[in-house]
Fold these 4 entries.
Entry 1:
Amino acid sequence: MISMAIKIALKELKKYWGNKKIIFSTLLLPGLVIFMVYSILGIISEKQANNTEFSTVYLVDVPDSFEEKVMQTPISIQKATREESSDIKQRIIDQDKSILVIFDEMFTEQVLMGDEPNVEVYYNSVVSSSVLSYNQVIQLLSDYKDEYCRSFTINQDSNIHYIVKNEDRMGKNISSMLPMLIVTLVFSACMAVSAESYAGEKERKTLVKLLATPIDRKSIVLGKSLSLGILALVSGLSSFIGAIFSLPKLYAFKGKNILEIYQGGHVALIILDIFSLAILLVTIMSLISARSNTVKEATTTLSPFGGVAMLIGMTSIMQSEPAQSILCYLVPIYNNVQALYGILIFDFSGRDYIVMICINLFYTALFGYILANMLSDEKIMYS
C-alpha cells in the first residue's frame, strides 16, 4: 500500500507542478504576501521611529574621550554612580525608556595595559525609544573602538546585560501576526489543491477511471493526501521565507535575520507543525471535495471555513503566552497555532507539541479512513 501511495503522490505532484496557476498561488504568492505586509509595516514603523524621542543615557565611570563623543550627538546623557545603577536597572525593567552604560572602573588603564575591559549596556527591548537609543549607543561604542584603537568587549555576558533579550523581543513581535498569516495562507492553498484533486477530477471524469483500477482506496487517499500536504507545506514555508526577508526590516535588526534567532531545531519544529496542519486540512477538505460535483461547488462550500481558520489563527494575538492546558492541544488547528506561537516566543512544551502532532495524525487517519470508504460508494462517486 505504501509503495503504491508514493507512486500516486509523485504522479499528483508532477501534475500540479505543471500547473502554473497552482505553482504561483502555493509557492510564490504566500511569501510575497508576507513580505509585502511586513515590509509596509516596517516603513510605517520607521516613520514612527523617526518621530520618537531618544532615551536618557546614564553613564557610569565613562572615559572623558567617549563622553565628548556622545555629547556631539542628539542623545541626552547623564552621569551616574555605581550605587545609583541598581535603581536605574530596576526602572529599565519597569519599562522606563532609559539606557544604562557601565564601564569598568579602571577602563582606560586596562586598555593601555593591553587588557580587554567590558562595557555593559542595559536597555529594555520592548520600549521602542530604548531600542533606538541602544542601537545608537552600540554604534558609538563601535566607532569609539575603531577611532581610538581601543580594545574592549560590549555585553560579554548577554544573558545578564539585556533586560529583554533580542530573541524574546523578535519572537513576541513575530508571534502577533505570523501564526494567523500562515494558517490563513495554508488554508487557501489546501482549498485550491483539494478542490482540484477530487471535485476537479470528478468534473473531468478522470477520477472514475482511477477508481475503476484495482488500486486499493486507502492507497489512493494516502497518495493524494501526501501530495496535497506537501503542496500546502510549500505554501507555509513560502510564508516563513517571506518573513525571513521582511522581518529584519520591520524590527530594524541590523545585520540579523530570523535564522540567526531561530536555530535549526526551531525551524524543524515549525516545518513539522505546518505539515501536520496541512495534511490534516487537505484530508478534511478532500471529504467535502469528494462530495462535490464541480470545483466551483467545492470551493463555494469550503470558502466560509477560511474565516474560521483566520479567527483561530488570531488567538495568539490576544495571548501573552501559549495555552498551558494540555486539553487545548487536543483541538485541531488551534493546537497548531498554540504550538507555533510557543516556538516563536521560545516558550513551548515538548509534551504539548507531541500531543499536537499525535492528535493531528489521529484525525488525519480518521478522516482518511472515512474518505477511503466514501470512494467505494458509487452513489457519491458516480453522481
Note: The chain has 18 helices and five strands.
Entry 2:
Amino acid sequence: MSGGVDSAVAAARAVEAGHEVVGVHLALSRMPGTIRTGSRGCCTIEDAMDARRAANLLGIPFYVWDLSERFKEDVVDDFIAEYAAGRTPNPCMRCNEKIKFAALLDKAIALGFDAVATGHYATLTDTPNGRELHRASAWAKDQSYVLGVLTEHQLAHCYFPLGDTPSKDLVRAEAEDRGLQVAQKPDSHDICFIPDGDTRGWLSGHLDRQPGEILDEDGAVVGRHDGAHGYTVGQRRGLQLGRPAEDGQPRYVLSIRPVSNQVVVGPKEHLAIGTIAGGRFSWAGEPGFDLTEAFDCDVQIRAHADPVPARARLQPILENERTELHRADASHEVIVEIDLDRAEPLLGVAPGQTAVLYIGTRVLGQFTIDRALAVQHAASEVFA
C-alpha cells in the first residue's frame, strides 16, 4: 500500500473478494524527513500515514517494512552506475523488478502469503503454457509497461484487482464511495529519491565531474562539458557549443561515450532510430516459441509512448563485434528492428531506457537498451 488511491482501492477489492489481506507499506527512503509536495515524490511519511488510515478503514492489519537497504543497493546504486556508464536508467522499472516483486514477494512467501496485490493497471491470463501478463482494459491507464520486468515466477504470485477498470476516474469515485481519504490524492510522477526533480543536480553529488570534449559526428571538437552524466540523448538546450553548425540548425546530443568521456552532437534527423539492442533482458512467462528466430512484435520504449511494429530476435554477442556500448557481462542481446514501412523511426532513444515487447496485448518481455542505431545504419547488418 503506497498511500495512493490505486493501492487503497485494490486492497478494498481484495477484502471484498474474500481474501485474507494484510496491508504493507514499503519504507524505501533513507531520508526519514522526506515530505511529499503535490505529485512530487512518493514513499514519504505522509504516504505511510495515508496507507495506515486506509488499512484501518478496511479493518486489515498494517505493517511498514523497511527495505531501504535493498532499495539503495538495487535501485539507487544501480541508477548511479548506469549514469556512470553513459546510460539513462528508469529506476521505477528496477524497483518493480528488485523490490516490489522480488524482495517484498520473497518475504511475503516466506511468511506464508500466496500473492502480492498492487494497484497497477494490468491483467493476468492463465494459459496451458502458464500465466501471461496483458495490458489493462483501459489503454489510457495501462501500466503493463512498468511491469514488463516481471518473470514467470513473479507473475505466478501477482494479483492486480484494478486491471479491468475502464478509467482512473471510476477508481477515484469508488474510493470516495468507500470513504477513503486518498480519493483525490495526486499521483506521484517524480523519481522518489529525487523528489525535487533535479536529476542533474542530484547526480553531481554522487558522481565525480570529469570534463571532456563535445564532438560532432566527424570527430571535430565543437565544445567542452564538465561531466558527461549531465547530458542525455536528444538534449538540445544547455550544450554551450563554441561554434554553430555549418547549416545553422540546432544540434542535439546523439550519443554519450563513457569510456572516452565524450558527448557527440548532430542534427535532429540523426536522432531517428531504426534498430535498438540490449543485453539485460527478461521474459514475462514462457514465450512459447524460439526467440532466436526473428518474430513480429510491437515495442514500447516509454511508459506513455505508443507501441510501434517491429521485428525482434535474441542472438549471441560475437566477441569480435563487442563495443564499449555492449554490457561486459552479457553473452546475448535482444535486437529489435523497427518496421519502417508501417511506423516512423523512434526519436530520442537513450541507452538505459527500457524497451518492452508486446505480441498483441501480451507482454512478452523487456530489455534495457544498450545500443540505438540511427536509420542511416543498415539494420540488415545487425540481423546478419
Note: The domain at 5-177 is CATH 3.40.50.620 (Rossmann fold).
Entry 3:
Amino acid sequence: MQSKNTDKNFGFGTQIRKSPFFDATVRWGATGFSVYNHMYIPRDFGDPEKNFWNLVNDAILCDVAVERQVEITGPDAFQFIQLLTPRDLSKLSIGQCKYVLITNEQGGILNDPVLLRLGENHFWLSLSDSDILLWAQGVAVNSGLNVCIEEPDVSPLQLQGPKSREIMVKLFGENIRDLKYYWLKELELDGIPLVVSRTGWSTELGYELFLRDGTQGDRLWEMIMTAGNEYGLQPGHTSSIRRIEGGMLSYHADADIHTNPFEMGLERLVSLNSDINFIGKKALMKIHKNGIKRQQIGLEIAGDSLKGPNTVFWEVSCDDKIIGKVTSAVFSPRLEKNIALAMVDKNFIKIGLKVSVEINGDSREAIIVEKPFFDPKKSLPSS
C-alpha cells in the first residue's frame, strides 16, 4: 500500500542531496531518513521487525543511492586501484566484483566498498559512508599515474531476499539466472541503462541495480515494484537486524580510521606476502608482526529485548575493568536474542566468557559467542 505522503518539499536544505528514488520512497511510505555520504537514505517504513521478515521471507526494494560510485578510468586505472587497496586484485576479471578495503598510510580503514570492474581500465568503487572521491583524487595528484577520477551519474537500488531472483527473471528474462555471486552485467530495462550485480548489504540472496540515468529513478522504482507485486515485494530499508546477524561491518559504527583490518578479522583482504604496492602496506606489515591489542567479537546480551539498535557505544566490562565497547546491537526476532558486535581487549577474548554491558545505566550480563550469528558460511547470498 502506497503512502499518501507526497510532500516533495521535505528536507533540510540543498546541501543534503536527494536520490533519484527519493520521491518514490516517500510515496511508498518512508517516514524516517538518515544522512549517509551527504545524502538522504530511507531508514524507516514503519516497523523495522516487519522489514526484517519481509527481507528474509520474500523481498524488499531499498534506495541505496547513497552508495556513491567513484569511477576510475584511464591507462593506469588498474595500477591506481591496486594502490588504494591491500587486497590482491591480480585475478580480478572484467565483469567481476570484489569486497575490498581502502586503507591510509597508518593502516587504518577509510572505507570498505565493493569494487566493480566494468572494463580493462574502467572501475567503480561502490562506497560505504566516507569521502573516498576526495581521497582518491588527492592520492592521484602525486601518484604519477594517468587516471581520471570522478563521480558518475550512477544510483543503486538493492533488491534483496529469497524471492529476488524470480522478480529479476520477470524483469530481465531467464538469462539473469546465470549471473553469479559477485559478478555483474550491463543491461537495459525498457531503455533504462543499468549495471546489475549479484551483491547487496543483507547477507541474503539479492541484486543491486545501478541506475545510469538519474532522470529515470521514479520509473525504475515503479517497474520493479510492479514486477514484484505477486512475490510479496515490499519497499524497505537496509536491515540492522539482518546485518548484525550476518556480522557485516557498518563503517563509522564498527570501524573507523583508527581501526585496522586485523582487528576486524579481515586479514583475508590484506595481501602482505605479494609484490603488490598499496597505501599502508608498511604499517600493516608492522601491525601483523607485532600483533593486535583488540579485536571484534560477538556478544549475546541478557535481559529484556532491546527496543532498537544502539545509538551510542556501550561499555563492556569484565571483573569491573572496562575492556571495550559494543559498536552494534539489536534484538533478533528470529534468534530471539539480543545480539551485538563489540571491540574488546584481545586478552579477554574467550568464547563463553561472561562480561557486563552498560546500557543507559543498566548493567547487563553478556556472553562472548562466535560470529556471525546466522548462516556463517553465507550460503544464502551465494545460492
Note: Residues 293-383 form a domain with the Elongation Factor Tu (Ef-tu); domain 3 fold (CATH 2.40.30.110).
Entry 4:
Amino acid sequence: MRIGIDARLWNETGVGRYIRALFRYLPHDQEFVWFLNSPTFETLEMPKNWKKIKCNVRWHTFKEQLIMPFFFYKERLDLLHIPYVNFPLFYFGKTVATIHDLIPDHYRTGKVTTLPWWFFNIKNIAYHFLIWVATRRTLKIFTLSNDAKNEIVDHYKVNPEKIVVTHDSGKLEDTSKKIGSAHTKKPYILYVGNAHPHKNVESLIKAIEIINANRHSGSPATAGLIESAKKDAIATLQHDEELKLVLVGSDKFFYPRLPKSKYVEVIGEVPNNKIADWYRHAQALVTASKMEGFGIPPLEAMSVGCPAIVSDIPVFHEVYGDAAVYFNHLDPQNIAEVIKKTLANKRLLKEMVELGYKQAAKYSWKKCVQETHKIYESSLGLRSGK
C-alpha cells in the first residue's frame, strides 16, 4: 500500500508533535509519501521505502485548496492521511483525517484573531465547511479523546463508528536528568502552551497576583515540590516568599496581549530537549484551559515527576484521572486557593508525583501510531501486518 501524509505542519506545536510521531513509528518497510515544506524537506532524511515531496504551500489558504490535490494525485496514493482540518476539497481519492478538537466552534469572536472581522468570518465559515466535508468523505476520522469524539458526533451528526480515538502521549523527546542553569531563581509554577483565548492564561495571571498579594496575610505556608533528577525531595517555601508564574511558549499575536505582571515571566519557546528541566524545577504545572481536544503538557509534566493542577473540564478528567488536582478555571480566586492548598500539602504532592508517573505511562506515541496504522490497513481492506 502507498500512503500519503500531508506533513506540512511538521514544525507546529501540537499537530507537529503528532506528525513527528507518525514519522518516527510508522513501519519503514511500507511505502509512505511525505508532503513537506521548507526547511523540513531539505533536512529530513527518509527511510529507503519512503519518499518526500516538496510543496511550499501555506495551509489554510485558497492556494492550498487549488494546488495540493495535484501533488496528491501525482503520487497515485492508495490512501491519504490529512492530520489537520485542512481537508482538500478537490481531492477525491481515499482519505482518513485527524480532527484534534472543535475549539473554533466555540470561539467565533474577534478576540481569537488579528484578521479583519470580515475576513475572519470567511475563514471561519470555510473551517466549518471543511470539517463537514471531512466527516462525510473520509473513510475514518481520528480524534484524540472520547470527549472530542462526542463533540464531533454531536456537532456534525457523524456515525460514532466512523470515529477512532487514538490518544496522544506526553512522552518527552528527551528526558535527560541534567539540570540546566537557565531557570528563574525564584520558586515558580509553570504554564506551557500558546496564549490563544481558550487557554485562559489571563486567569492564571490573575491567580498568581492573588497568591502573591496574600503572601503576608497569614495564609498557610506555601509548599512546593522540586523533584531533582535522583531524589524525590520535597522542599517547603516560606509563606512570605514570592511565587512566580513562568510561561513557556510564544505566538506573534496573543502573548503580547496578555496583561503584564511583575510575578509573570515569559520565557518564549523552549526546545523539546530542554523542556524537561523546566518541568522538574517547577512547583507544579498549571493550565486553565476552557476546553481542549487532549492536553499534552500536563502529561509531559507528570512523566518527569512534576505535579499538575488543571481545569475542571471533562477531557482533563478523562486524560489525567486522579493524578491531577482540579480547579474552577472561570474563577481566579478559586485557582489561587487550589494552587496554594495543593502546594502546601506535602503528602498530596508526593502522591501526585507517584500517580502522575503511572498516568503518563498509560499513553504512548508508539501505541497511538500503531493503532493509526491498523486503521490505514483496515480502510484499504488489508489484514493487519500485510
Note: The longest strand covers residues 31-36.
